[in-house]
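Fig. S4 source data, part A: sequence.
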Amino acid sequence: MTVRRDDGYEITTDPGRIDTALVHRWLSTDAYWALGRSRETVERSMAASLNFGVLGPRGDLAGYARVVTDRATFAWLCDVYVPPHHRGAGLGTWLVHTVRAHLAPQGVKRVLLATADAHGVYAKAGFTPCADPAQLMELDLHAAGPGRTGTEGTGA
C-alpha cells in the first residue's frame, strides 16, 4: 500500500522501503518507550508486524509506525515515531489516520495504543481514553523472572 500527499510525502507498507537501521536508531536513542532496545529486537518486532513508513519528498524516512494485529479483530498500534526535523507538518496525525483506514476494511474493530505524551495526535484520529482503564491488564514476563509465572502471591 502506498498513499501520497500533495506535498510529496508518502506512506508505504513496503518493508523494502523502510530503513530498519534508522528505525532502530530512532527508537533506541530517542523514543522514551524503547530506549536501549536492541537492533535484533527491532528487527524481530518489525518482521512480525505490519509496518508503515512515512517517506519524505526526497525518499528519506520521515516517520514510522508498527501495528501488531491478527488482521481480523484486533490491533495494537505502537512505535509511532516522527523525528524532530519532520515534526509540525501533521505527519503523525496523517500516519495514524492512514493506519486506521488500512485496518478498517479488514474488519478490525478495536485498536489500542499507549502514550504518555501524544494524546492530541491520537485524538485527531478518533482515539479516546479507555472507558475503564482499570479493566486493562498486563503481564510483564520479564519482571516475572525465569521459572515464575508472575502470579506468585496473587492467589491465582
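Fig. S4 source data, part B ends here. Residues 150-156 have pLDDT under 50 and may be disordered.
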